[in-house]
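Figure 3 (text version): structure tokens given as input.
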């Protein structure tokens, strides 16, 4: 049986007044029809106002009994709703709760609070169809379809009645500074262990402590509504491209003196070349070749000069290398150029050796090519001259024989 609990005075007042709410418009419409029978049809009703809903739903005592014996709070914080993006836009409660237009309300039953959420969250689809359709391809939706009732849905991230603005009103593709700050805490509701690592990382500390807009938050790597499964081979293979979105941006990296050649140098070496081939030819195949996060970490990425984990510290780099190369010795990391193309400032020895061979090899091959061409030309010339000499010899002999026959 459905039971609604609320403060007695408000209930009595509602029961006394609700019939009047319906009676007054009915009398008014009847009078209008009598006085002006030929007038144009009246505009459609605008629905129930928020004040009518909040007459009951602002009460702290309002709740609904559920099938498991618990209660579902039905109280709405009026101030939070009015300050939400929906409240600022002037939306009414019934714009989302379209089945409710009178009191008593249509019967609603739920086994527990989660069941109530799963029944009601699809109301978001009415206005946000594009975003809702994207969630259907997400790892969250697949988990929900697989029986995990705790998988995130719209209202788990955005809330139901206190939805905050996410994007800049003047640029819908740009997050507000406040939204960037909220995103990690939002994800932490389900992924708190990961959040604890992230907030201590170079990215998380810069965002949460320094409000740095240049560092990635969760959705920059994982996506927004169509969040993919990060445990798949396909995600692993494309992860260098995810990192490259920020780390190949000259405007962003120049602020911190970080090389933008990370992707170029990675793809040019054996590890990156193999991963790129796998991504293009067999994206679902497993590979043991390292990607960015195998060396730098995933959510716990540290500064490169961090004494404990930073890869500028030779011992830390060796420890990482030994995960895949257990026999690596102390000089093994010396071959790593740290995502920089050799220059007089970075690894000058390698730069000048490369420069020498860039000059020496073309000069050597060019010289050999000239030598071959000259030799071939000489041979062709001598052969042509030989044929010419033989022809002149035959002509001279014939001339001598003719002169001797005359004499």
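Below: residues designed for each position.
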């Amino acid at each position: 049986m459905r039971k609604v609990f609320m403060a007695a005075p408000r209930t009595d007042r509602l029961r006394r007044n609700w019939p009047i709410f319906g009676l007054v418009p009915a009398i008014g419409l009847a009078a209008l029809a009598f006085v002006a029978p030929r007038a144009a049809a009246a505009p459609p009703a605008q629905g129930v106002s928020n004040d009518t809903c909040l007459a009951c739903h602002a009460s702290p005592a309002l709740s609904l009994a559920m099938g498991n014996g618990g209660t579902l709070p039905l109280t709405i914080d009026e101030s939070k709703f009015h300050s939400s993006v929906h409240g600022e836009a002037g939306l009414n409660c019934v714009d989302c709760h379209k089945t409710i237009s009178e009191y008593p309300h249509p019967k609603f039953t739920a086994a527990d609070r989660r069941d109530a959420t799963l029944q009601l969250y699809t109301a978001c689809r009415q206005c946000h169809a594009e975003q809702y359709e994207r969630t259907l391809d997400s790892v969250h939706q697949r988990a929900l379809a697989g029986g995990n009732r705790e998988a995130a849905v719209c209202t788990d991230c955005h809330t139901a009645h206190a939805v905050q603005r996410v994007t800049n009103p003047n640029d819908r593709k740009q997050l507000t500074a406040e939204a960037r700050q909220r995103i990690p805490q939002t994800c932490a509701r389900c992924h708190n262990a990961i959040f604890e690592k992230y907030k201590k990382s170079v990215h998380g500390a810069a965002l949460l402590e320094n409000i740095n807009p240049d560092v990635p938050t969760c959705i920059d790597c994982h996506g927004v509504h169509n969040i993919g499964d990060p445990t798949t081979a396909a995600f692993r293979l494309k992860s260098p491209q995810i990192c490259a979105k920020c780390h190949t941006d000259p405007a962003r990296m120049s602020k911190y003196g970080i090389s933008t050649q990370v992707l170029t140098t990675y793809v040019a070496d054996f590890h990156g070349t193999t991963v790129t081939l796998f991504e293009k030819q067999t994206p679902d195949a497993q590979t043991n070749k390292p990607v960015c996060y195998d060396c730098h970490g995933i959510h716990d990425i540290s500064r490169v000069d961090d004494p404990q984990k930073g890869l500028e510290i030779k011992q830390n780099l060796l420890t990482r290398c030994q995960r895949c190369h257990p026999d690596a010795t102390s000089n093994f990391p010396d071959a790593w150029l740290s995502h920089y193309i050799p220059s007089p400032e970075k690894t000058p020895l390698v730069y000048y050796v490369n420069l020498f061979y860039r000059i020496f090899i073309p000069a050597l091959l060019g010289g050999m090519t000239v030598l071959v061409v000259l030799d071939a030309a000489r041979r062709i010339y001598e052969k042509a001259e030989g044929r010419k000499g033989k022809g002149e010899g035959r002509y001279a002999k014939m001339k001598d024989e003719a002169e001797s026959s005359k004499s």
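The longest strand covers residues 171-175.
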